[in-house]
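Worked Example 4.2. Read the sequence first, then its structure tokens.
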Amino acid sequence: MGRDDGPRVRIPEQRAPEQPATADTLRFTVLGPVRAWRGSELLPSGSPQQRALLAALLLREGRTATANELIAAFWGEDPPSQALATIRTYASRLRKTLGQDTLVSESGGYAIRTGRGALDLTLAQDLAAEAEKARASGDRGQARALINKVLGLWDGEALASVPGPYADNQRTRLEEWRLQLTETRLDLDLEVGCHAEAVSELTALTAAHPLRERLRELLMVALYRSGRQAEALAVYADTRRHLAEELGVDPRPELAQLQQRILRADEELARPADEPAPAPAPLRPAQLPATVPDFTGRAAFVSELGGRLATAEGSVMAVSALAGIGGVGKTTLAVHVAHQARPHFPDGQLYVDLQGAGARAAEPETVLGSFLRALGTADSAIPDTLDERAALYRSTLDGRRVLVLLDNAHDAAQIRPLLPGTPGCAALVTSRVRMVDLAGAHLVDLDVMSPEEALQLFTRIVGAERVGAEREAALDVVAACGFLPLAIRIAASRLAARRTWTVSVLAAKLADERRRLDELQAGDLAVKATFELGYGQLEPAQARAFRLLGLADGPDISLAAAAALLDRDPHAAEDLLEALVDTSLVESAAPGRYRYHDLVRLYARACAERDEEPAARESALSRLLDFYLATAAGVYALERPGDRLADHREPTQYSGLTFADRHSAQDWLYAEANSLLACVRQTSGAGAVRRAVDLLWATKDLAESGANSKQYEAAAIMMRDLAQATGDARAEGRALITLTNARLVAGRFDQAERDAQRATRLARAVNDPLPSCWAPNDLGIIALYQNRHAEGESYLEQAIANFRADGNRPGEASALCNLSRIHLAMGNTASAVALAQQGIDIYDELGHALRGANGRYALGLALTQSGRLADATDQLHDALAVFRDSRQRLWEGMATFRLAEVDLAAGLPAQAATKSEQALAILRGIGGEWRRGNVLTVLGRALNEIGQPGRARVCWREALDIYEALGSAEIEGVRQLLVPTLPG
């Protein structure tokens, strides 16, 4: 039977054993080449036969080996006539190297006397024993760490290049032990939920050891837990066929039982095997915000809610929903009750602000992703859809006692997927609306405080001495606040911060009915009156900053962006912002970043509408847009030296930031992504649409990053629609190119083509060079993907001509690299290599790191098809490193996929399968179904070549389903791969 020497588990390169040692300490290794060290000095070990003697003595672990035993170890049953003399010669040479006290002669034989820690094998044995104890005690994390440490001691094949039958036997024994350790570590990986990460390693191992059923079993479990049931079943079918063909036997009963459990969709199989104490222990999230130290009153509510939570353990999930106007203290009460109930929920407490009072409430699927991570779920194991995430969330909570605090909910529909749904868990919900349509919920309507509670809260903040001296004035204050907790807290905090004020001064200020809270009013008006109290105490410059900053839509704002919006230098802007933080009207989200509470933002905007002229409001947002555009254009220029965007973009009156290098520029871009995309979406006037579109153009990298792709596309659609509505053909053409880019990333090529075609017509009508160049470039890419090669060649030749006419050398390089791919698809490999190299030469001359990586990607494809596989690998590895460094997840995944193709062409199917699995993981949620189909096709080919045809067919069928749904040209090719299994 032939043996596929595919890749084994990659073990870190071995160094001299790391342990405290003097310069004379001897150490030895046999888990790799046989070596000896004295201190940090590598000693000469002599000829292979001399190393064989050293290995034989080391493996005796201090016991004496007789001359006859050593002769048999060297030569077996047919030793030479001078065997004994030869042994003595080797022993003499070793003694000179190691010393008289180390290699000793006794009883007609030899022994090596060292401490137990001197040999890597004994160290490995001791660590493995510790790992077994840790696992038996339930400490899986420690067991995994120890086994990884053991495996890290290997440096390739044990006893490498050591001759003799004894060495052969020991080498086989040690390799078997190494595989057993690897199986144990992989088993632990599955037990702690790292199944998705284990698939690629197990795929490689099953290829290298096709008859090892335990590895197949682990692969089936890993695939099943990753949601790939069909592939898991295909692994069993491949195993049964392979065992029958090679050995004439059936799979062992455990494997057959596993197949049946997968067929039944056994829920227990989806979880780690039961053990006395899971290790590592499930994460116990403790996400509750801090409770306020001066919590006051609400005794009846605390008792009522606390009682329901205390009895949650033995009942169906308890849900309590608190409702009331803004500022009534819903969050404060819920957090206080949740902290008191913590002993009843030992497995953790989850918290989220659902932002229900704002314009954009939190998406349930985003919240579920955060909750699952907090509960210990790996990113790779979190599904994409809302329903799948909700199901996994409920499964993860099953058997746990967890409290979930859902703060500031928009409505019942938002929170239903976030409810635990299992006995022992409970949910507390706060909202401005009553959750009458939330089945089974215990509804609590929270009203304002009683006069006694309100005065008590006011006293705790201001101080008993000041309030006691003016009790009547204090009662007037809390009455003017409508007994609303938030209003009382704000008023008391202002008074506490101003030692020169008396309570009567504050009461007199609140006596004005226009500034006083009215208990009969409800909703935002009451909250607005509360904030008016703090707003009225601001200096004029602070008040204007408060009003204008509230106009920005982003989740937060940086100091630099705020300075632009306020038209202040950064130091002056920081003084204003920190003053607002001190008044509690603005929060400091992080150093240099600021945000509003959602209700405060609404109030600030109301103030701006009341106190600022429309032109002033428009100018503030215009300066913010200028800042983002100028800064983003600078980032774009650092990434793409020589690009003509700087010459063709809309001018800005406000300058942006500058950066020392591309990494700091990228950091800014991704940190500001949500805020600058919000600024684009907020654009509404004809005068700003061109700058907003150019901002999208300058931040194209966000579309390819994966993290912001959907938000980017949504903003591009809004700008296209706005440009159409305002009749701005130039802005519309550019918006369509940004939209084309987003849809290319998502794999929606038909939509991308329609957008690029219209952009071409608009660019021609207004003579705009940017879309005139990039539209045919994008159309050429689309034609390449859809196998319309002649058409694609025409588009790209037009793009090259247009780029050259505009003097856009980076654009020319891009089109040359894309034309290289067209030539490659048409079978012109020599010209494909030449074109890609031309593009790279331009990129390198200009100092383009990221786009140069795109050129190397194209060259790698051409070199692969021309058979220069080593050169292709070098180019693709260089590209991959840049893509990772630049956070371009789409291209990181595609470069990994192309490396899999190279491995397949090089006859390394096991490595190809591993890289294909890695590509699938990287491209999850980005790149679209067409690219996923391409990766699945290559994965299937690799699996087929390593003896897993059943699993290969599962991949091909999934790819075929994708291609048929898209109407892709690849349909027939995949059908041919499936011919043996298709009917008729």
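Now turn to a second chain, presented in exactly the same format:
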Amino acid sequence: MTAPGRRSSTFTRLLRHGFTDPSAAERLLESPELAPVRDDPVLLEALGATADPDLALRGLVRLLEAQPAPTARRELLDTVIAAKPLRDRLLGVLGASAALGDHLARHAGDWRVLVTYEPQDLHPGVEEFERGLAEATDPVSLRVAYRRCLLSIAARDVCGTTDVAETAAELADLATATLRAALRLARAAAPDDVALCRLAVIAMGKCGGHELNYVSDVDVIFVGEAAEGADEGKALRAATRLASHMMRICSETTIEGSIWPVDANLRPEGRNGPLVRTLSSHVAYYQRWAKTWEFQALLKARPVAGDLDLGAEYVAALEPMVWTAAERENFVADVQKMRRRVVENIPAAEVERELKLGPGGLRDVEFAVQLLQLVHGRTDPSLRSRTTLDALKALAAGGYVGRVDAVQLDEAYRFLRSMEHRIQLYRLRRTHLVPEDEADLRRLGRSLGLRTDPVAALTREWKRHTGVVRRLHEKLFYRPLLDAVAQLAPGEVRLSPEAARERLVALGYADPAAALRHLEALASGVTRKAAIQRTLLPVLLGWFADSADPDAGLLNFRKVSDALGKTPWYLRLLRDEGAAAENLARVLSAGRLAPDLLMRAPEAVALLGDGDGGGLEPRGRAQLEQEILAAVGRAESAEQGVTAARGVRRRELFRTAATDIVGSYGTEAQPAEADQGALVDRVGSAVSDLTAATLAGTLRAVVGEGWGETLPTRFAIIGMGRFGGHELGYGSDADVLFVHEPREGVDEREASEAANRVVAEMRRLLQIPSADPPLLIDADLRPEGKSGPLVRTLKSYEAYYHRWSLVWESQALLRAEPVAGDEDLGRRFVELIDPLRYPARGLGEDAVREIRRLKARMEAERLPRGADPKLHTKLGPGGLSDVEWTVQLLQLRHAWAEAGLRTTRTREALAAARGAGLISEENASILDEAWVLATRVRNAVMLVRGRAGDTFPADPRELAAVGRYLGYGPGHVGDMLDAYRRTARRARGVMESLFYGM
């Protein structure tokens, strides 16, 4: 007897053998059922070798209690102690699966299926499982027989007799036998239906791929044909009844539970389509309507039950379509988008525990392998395996995947599938989530052979393998492209030129030969530079492929690399700062403007990182002015100073464009900016501030060279139009007015000549041909337009506006804001024009009619010949002009009373009108959405084409790039145009109501 307070030797031994509740285990060992063997060391050693010794012991006691007689109990105990194969199998199952322990407790004689240890028992196939299910006569007995077969599979699995791939194949074979047995029962129940039709069951998904889980939906497609002489309609209805009954036999819950759900949703039209179709109907659907993912799903199609000849005809008919799917437009993008959508739909709380669907999970390996199969299987039949690991092996053997990458992915996939199997085996429940409970994690770790600190070891191995998959699954597609143009070690297999071309075409490259030349130039050789490029390019190629013009992205990357390749920081920046490489890829493949700006001074690449270059955050006007004025002050001439100012402008235009592109596309770490208005405001403010700072610096340079510190006249520049409204786009001119006031004692003629010389010199210097884009100054909104003097004194403006001002000039002055020069003069100019643009008591009816007349004439006369009015962002219905004239009319009529309307900014004025109750919330939202969208389109056109435009490009690739910038994926250009027309149509309706009073 053990002394009080001291632990028994049994207790200590139980702890040593891995029991977590040795007190309970000690009591179970004292039970009558185990009396004959409680001191046998063999039993304790065997229990300690299981995944969960406590669970195994409880299961053994329950099994002994369930034996019908003492002799049966003694037979079981004797066999357990004497026969090591049975002992390892039985206790291994009991320690890994509570569900199979429950089954054995209900069916106490089923332990005997674990006794046989014949060669055919080690690797059973469909025939052996069919024999095991042959005596089932109803759904209940089928479930019992199924679990009995499952018991033998699990025993081989947990004992290591079969590896994870063999276990998955056995589970698929058992599913095949079960579907056949279920169809046999359904056919026996409806002999009249059997006489009318032929029915084939096609396994899909993991069952079709011969890689099933313990608990999984079994995906199927049904093919039916009329029996000879039967009516096709009646035959299909009969086949549908048989198929539905077969599904219920497998899926319905009985006193013995269910087997697994049979899922037919991969069929044409999904759950909305007929359950059974004829072969010709299947072929017609896939020829005309099927999406890319449906051909990807057909990779796994395998006839398993029913009329196998009809099933073979189905596979033969559809197989050619599967192997030409990679020729479909946007093929790679469609597959990758499908993968991203799967990840996005995982609840945030579960994404890190998702073994199957999460980042670095099983689906990443499967998608990558299937993508490569579809691209290269058309010309290489050796790749046409339904099984993931066999396909991966074939891809490596053919040089389509690097051998080291393939080995690492194989190991990771096997480990993650083993985890998935053991998680499901415990309760025989369909789940892919790694458990959070420590006891569950301990059992899982021990089941995988991790006996020393199993929880920590499991977590470490799991994270290591998911990390490998995350790192490799996308590179898998791109890295062999580099090997195709690189010098490989002896014995290495390279991607053939034709296979490399196929892969590049699938990625969307229009000129694969040129792309391969760029890759060779970048990545061949033994230099450190080439080695870093080989590391970067697999990822960059994926990002280029995510754009509308991968060819341009790769070409531009080569140009930048050629220009900066010898600088020590360039490749280091891309390698060490993940954001920099992705940002660069987005910028280089999004259109012409940003790459053109970058090529003129490639060192601006530094802005794309997070280091000392300032990053992508736009700089404020004060900071820009300070830098430009300092550069002008250091210059030896006005031309040199303005050259420096234009250089800053080019760099900051690049920064603004890059920020806009990255915000519109999104990155792996940061999704695309959801607030489109914020993107527009950011660009408008940044470009307007930059233009103002450039003009201030140019003015300082011109005055300094011609007059020293002081110009004979005070001089101010007034921003007009989009410039004054802080709404400039990338291609906008700077609309301005020039105002001056002679200093005391200076002759007015001398002052006027000085002011005109300043303007002429500023315009000249800002347009001198150079590497920097010109800044065009447009003063056509001045009094008398092009016929009037370029520069006026403040008194001249006052006299003109007092006597001659027209209503359109009051409207134009709504956007007037001082941007450079003498601040006091600018302020007094604003005081002068405020009564004109915010008239007391608002506009009279005659003035309102005149504005409406002008707008109607503009709509009739100014739209370019041949332009589609519905897609013209400036002058078309619902475009910028409609929104702005509507807002400006509200300002002219009500700003005298509503201070919030006294702003030069369109969106700000619209919000103020809504706040003042002058426009409804709904109508304001419609106008704002239309204005933002039209502005975004104009910005996109400039970014893509490198020149300004007010309508969508005609070139398909440019149009797709505009769509990508606006958030539309490949193949959705039509949706983009429809959305624009719809948005503009609604805005036009609001405009006609508010502006014309219709």
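Notes for the reader: The radius of gyration is 38 Å. The beta strands are 197-203, 218-226, 262-263, 276-277, 302-306, 713-719, 734-742, 777-778, 791-793, 817-821.
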